[in-house]
Amino acid sequence: MKINGGFDVAGGIENCMWLSSSSTSSALRRQHFLIRTLCASSTPQTSHNQMERVHCASISIPEADAEGVIRKITPVLDRTRHKGQAGRIAVIGGCREYTGAPYFTAISALKIGADLSHVFCTKDAATVIKSYSPELIVHPILEESYSVREDERETVSSYILAEVRKWLERFDCIVVGPGLGRDPFLLNCASDIMRHARQLSIPIVIDADGLYLVTNNIDLVRGNSLAVLTPNVMEYKRLLEKVLNCDVNNDNQSEQLRLLSQKIGGVTILRKGKEDLISDAKTVTKVSTFGSPRRCGGQGDILSGSVAVFTSWARRYVMSGIPSSETSLNPLILGCVAGSVLLRKAALRAFLSKKRATLTTDIMEFLGQSLEEISPAE
Ligand SMILES: NC(=O)C1=CN([C@@H]2O[C@H](COP(=O)(O)OP(=O)(O)OC[C@H]3O[C@@H](n4cnc5c(N)ncnc54)[C@H](O)[C@@H]3O)[C@@H](O)[C@H]2O)[C@@H](O)CC1
Ligand SMILES: Nc1ncnc2c1ncn2[C@@H]1O[C@H](COP(=O)(O)OP(=O)(O)OP(=O)(O)O)[C@@H](O)[C@H]1O
Ligand SMILES: [Mg+2]
């Protein structure tokens, strides 16, 4: 099918597109070429509802195939593989108030196909999270201010970091923030964990209270090419105010997102909303596959777990065994596109089944089936 001035794009395109700002550098053109190549070589599937063309600073780029991205990066279920090879994810979050959020993130990662999913949370939250599921490995090691005496804080925070460090380098991706809360002592420990993960070059998805933390200390992520921020409407607004000192501009959302990412040193940002917009300062991608009209809490938590798994898989895909011409793809963008589309597909199926009663738990139950329809296990 020919779109946008004559590019040939293979089937399977579904409401996902790549945009560009004014940059026309050869690196950028190359990235777009590679995305088209990646998509064109995946299994064709002709669901072309809502083909769109989006303009950003006068240059329009053809749509990419989000399902094609999922098919490419999802590892085959090879019988020779051992436990852990399909991904080890950790969530830093879970406190007295919130136990659902870290659970949704961690269990979604498993349901999509990760082998191991850990949760590092406070002691109060740990027993509750364990009781939701025996599949999760739960570490009750975080502390809030109320449980630590002033004179013990330094020792306790060193102990917490040491405990997390024992595990960190085993993880393919960590998610910081779902249900973390905003206790200052806890947030300081989370900052230490983020710095350490960065030193070890471990990808970090930052969501919810992790975004609150980062918004108040942008240096925690500035220039980290392995960080993904996943703000919802309010979290994005706060980030914009802090970093660009301005309000949301609905007339030029793509360019504003690209600028925000650029100002934070090219950090990948997935802006959630009616349409998900994704940018790493070079490109802007939009995913608008229809999901569900239900806005029950917890869907963002599923998304962060989903992005974590797909980012790990995309990194492996990009780093090993593929033609060198594809190695300049940004795996974090591929992970965001894949995570966003899968959540939307699962949300749609859950809504068709449960209508107004649709809850986040129902959406989770459709993650496997939705992935199976795109990338069958056998
Ligand atoms: N079951 C659970 O344990 C859940 C816990 N959660 C946790 O709750 C904590 C706070 O997260 P919040 O997301 O509430 O963050 P905030 O406390 O920053 O609240 C965001 C606010 O924005 C509002 N809002 C959302 N979308 C909007 C839109 N489109 N237009 C206008 N206003 C909008 C919400 O109603 C909410 O009042 C985090 O730790 C998060 O992970 C949530 O993830 C939801 C599920
Ligand atoms: N108005 C909308 N129409 C369609 N999809 C939406 C809409 N708003 C959000 N979504 C989708 O729902 C998912 C979760 O986004 P949301 O804004 O609810 O995150 P969140 O507030 O962080 O959720 P959580 O309750 O888990 O914290 C995203 O993938 C997004 O695409
Ligand atoms: Mg959220």
TrEMBL record:
Against InterPro entries, the record matches this protein to: CARKD, Ribokinase-like
The species is: Rhynchospora pubera
Tell whether Phosphoprotein is among the UniProt keywords: yes
Give the PROSITE patterns listed for this entry: YJEF_C_3
Q: Where does (6S)-NADPHX bind?
A: 179, 232-238, 301
User: Which reaction is catalysed here?
Assistant: (6S)-NADHX + ATP = ADP + phosphate + NADH + H(+); (6S)-NADPHX + ATP = ADP + phosphate + NADPH + H(+)
Designated name of the protein: ATP-dependent (S)-NAD(P)H-hydrate dehydratase
Domain YjeF C-terminal, which positions?
66-374
